[in-house]
Design goal:
By secondary structure, the chain is an alpha/beta fold. The chain has a single domain (3-140), classed as Rossmann fold, CATH 3.40.50.1010. The protein is 52% helix and 12% strand. The chain contains 8 helices and 5 strands. Strands 3-2-1-4-5 form a 5-stranded parallel β-sheet, with helices on both faces. Helix 1 packs across helix 2 (22-31), helix 2 (22-31) crosses helix 8 and helix 3 runs antiparallel to helix 5. It is globular.
Length: 141
């Protein structure tokens, strides 16, 4: 069974910004079926908000965002409704990612902002950088 993980928006943004680096490699491996993205409605909405706001910086037309998000949703294990839990983090915008990881027993939460998610570790969530997650995937092959 593939490794299941929640991906912070900053990782998706970095993957779309450059085709050189760990984030791009993670998305390539996601498309290849080497790991499973966990996705809630709230996280998908966050992806959409950031992509629409930053489309010019990412070199995307607004018309490209919908199909890109559809592709991400198609690849993901979707969890549309999660039971509310006690907040874990100081940053409210990061909370949906930690909540999704906790509710789905994710193998990891992938982010560049590991310090923001430090409290989630006390709830048993493995918080890793894209490079660390890649190392996990490579160890499985």
């Amino acid at each position: 069974m593939p490794t299941r993980a929640v991906m912070d928006t900053n990782v998706l943004y970095a993957a779309l910004r450059s085709d050189a680096g760990a984030s791009y490699e993670l998305v390539r491996r996601l498309r290849a079926g080497e790991w499973t993205l966990l996705l809630s409605n709230t996280v998908a909405t966050e992806y959409e908000e950031i992509l629409r706001r930053e489309h010019a910086a990412l070199g995307l037309d607004q018309a490209e965002i919908g199909p890109l998000l559809d592709d991400i949703c198609r690849l993901a294990e979707r969890h549309p409704r999660l039971r509310p839990r006690e907040p874990m983090l100081a940053e409210p915008e990061d909370e949906p990612f930690a909540q999704l990881a906790a509710a789905t027993n994710a193998d990891a939460l992938i982010t560049y902002n590991t310090a923001h998610y430090e409290p989630a570790r006390r709830h048993g969530i493995r918080v890793v950088t894209p490079r660390e997650f890649l190392a996990t995937l490579r160890a499985k092959t």
